[in-house]
Amino acid sequence: MLRRESVVITLRNENEVILNLPDDSTKVPDEDVTNQSWRKNLRTRLSIRTQRRKWGGRADTWDRHNDVGMSNVAARAIEMADVRPGMVCVDLGCGGGRLALLLAKSGATVIGVDVSDAMIQRMESQAESEGIGTLTGMVMPIQNLSLPDESVDLVITNYALHHLLDADKAKVVRAAYGWLRPGGQLIIADMMLGRGATAQDRQVIASKIKIMAKKGLPGYWRILKNAGRFLFRVHERPITPEAWSRLFEAAGFVNLESVNVVAEANVVKGNKPGN
Fold first, then answer.
1. What's 7-192+238-271's CATH class?
2. 236 touches 229 (CB < 8 A)
3. I want to staple 132 with a disulfide (CB 3.0 to 4.6 A). Which of 73, 95, 109, 127 is the partner?
4. What is the CB neighbour count within 10 angstroms for residue 5?
5. Which residues contact 61 (CB under 8 A, 6 or more apart)?
6. 222 φ, ψ to 5°?
């Protein structure tokens, strides 16, 4: 399987689009400086480095520690995707390949993109062991990914974008709109809630605290750790389903759907106008 340096996507008209993407396993590309202030650009760089370090260290254990709720969210995202053989799909923040492997098994050509080289290696190893030859891994921060316009049919992501800064969330949605062919789909499955301003937010937060508290001392430690991350928007930067929907609409997506799967997680889907 090819990784990092180039990826070949075979289009339905049998032409080929070659994506000459840089090896990003050791450094963060210096991109988009003209579109962001130096402060925002610095925050993005720090966020990328933090995520690479975090997920690189959790590659071997992450799938085992996912709870039933997260599995249900992933399953719902796949269910909402209109996947057909021959489609070209991109999984942003693919991790060990939970979505990407399922998409490839459905007959799609899939690019799994993740900031962690260890995660990509894990996904590719699993694909090889299952005899899947239509899945390619790309080590790349989501924020820095660049694909040819109108080259893919589906952009999907599961529990990855809430780690991004809000400006980078908007950037990814706009970029996905450009990558998609007319009629293509963007599906975001993720933690989606505000910071406690609404009754629904407070109910979700309270339910999560109760679940963690039942685990005793380790649970209380997680409460303190997650509270700090949430309050100061370090690592955990979720926004509401309504905020995601506004980003979709601003980018030009239509036929929006938002489905609540578990207390803190929704799946939001939009289509690029066209066929």
1. alpha beta
2. yes
3. 127
4. 11
5. none
6. -65, -35
